[in-house]
Each structure stands twice: as C-alpha cells, then as structure tokens.
C-alpha cells in the first residue's frame, strides 16, 4: 500500500470519527449506532476506500 492511500484512509477514519462524535446520542441512535461503535464504523468506512 502506498503512502497516499494510507494517508487517505487515515484522513477518512479521522473525519468519520469527528463527524460521528459531534452527534448526540439520539442522532447516533437514529443511525443505529452507539458511541462504542464509532471506532468500528470509522475503521469500516476507511477500509472501504
């Protein structure tokens, strides 16, 4: 894996974590995720890039 792809994945992970963390618990619940799921969801998203 080249450095650009690694950086894109890292940036996508960080952005996803920031955006999900900014939501309140009700909004997260509406999406079907909990606070403890944020890292996993962000990893899954970054892995799909």
UniProtKB/TrEMBL annotation:
Q: Which residues form the YjiS-like domain?
A: 3-38
Source domain of life is Bacteria
Q: Name one Pfam family in it.
A: YjiS-like
Please give the InterPro entries that the UniProt record associates with this protein. Answer: YjiS-like
Q: What is this protein called?
A: DUF1127 domain-containing protein
Name the source organism: Devosia rhodophyticola
């Amino acid at each position: 894996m080249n450095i650009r792809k690694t950086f894109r994945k890292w940036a996508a992970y960080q952005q996803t974590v920031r955006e999900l963390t900014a939501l309140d618990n009700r909004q997260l619940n509406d999406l079907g995720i909990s606070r403890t799921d944020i890292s996993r969801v962000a990893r899954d998203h970054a892995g799909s890039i």
